[in-house]
Amino acid sequence: MPTVQTIRAATLRRVLAAAAMLACIAASPAAAQDIPGGNREDFGRGRLDFNADALRDFNKFTAEWAEAWKRRDLRSLMAKYSGNPTVILGDSALVRGQIELRRFFERELPAGSEIRLSVGDFAAGEGLTYASGAFVYQGSPEADPASGTYVLVLSQEGGRLKIRMQMLTPAPVLKPAPPAAARSDP
Fold first, then answer.
1. In terms of Cα–Cα distance, which of 103, 107, 120, 123 is closest to 26?
2. What is the rounded distance in angstroms from the CA atom of residue 3 to the CA atom of residue 148?
């Protein structure tokens, strides 16, 4: 049964990533290039500047989010989420909305825990940002770190980035195979 759940989580992750990318493409200024009255300036240069600014803003946002997580500053942490976020944690937890998310963090977020993100894929359009990559989570200084993959979809709300959808999927813990039984030849 765990294999079926893993396939479902992987399929969901691909579907959400594809939907986010399509939304970014549809919202991008490139879509308006061939529309009458659209902007025919050097789109490539503008897009590079836009992506650089968007990535800089994203990195600042995630650094602030991780710091609020580490301090267990629920007020600052909750301010990073949209009014109706969806958070998926592995195959076990689906959290929807600000109230449910706050309750979840109050119960489950250990003081002193840390989370670090690395960006593997990034796309930004007007009003929507998609990022995915790897995370490392340290529950306490004496605990072994956990790692996995994440997907974030952020929107612009009131000129600020807000998390609309977040998915953290832990990597499976691999155990070494038992030693092979010694063979005795007759």
1. 123
2. 17
Domain residue ranges in the chain: 2-31+42-170
Tokens of 125: 């359009």
- 16-65 residue pLDDT tens: 554 554 444 444 444 444 444 445 454 455 566 677 888 889 999 999 99
Q: pLDDT class for 167, splitting at 50, 70, 90?
A: very high
Between the alpha carbon of residue 116 and those of residues 70, 123, 136, 164, the distances in Å are 10, 19, 5, 19
> Which string of b and e fits 52-76 if b means at least 16 CB within 10 Å?
eebeebbeebbeebbebbbeeeeee
Is CATH 3.40.50.1220 correct for 2-31+42-170?
no
Whether the pTM exceeds 0.70: the reply is no
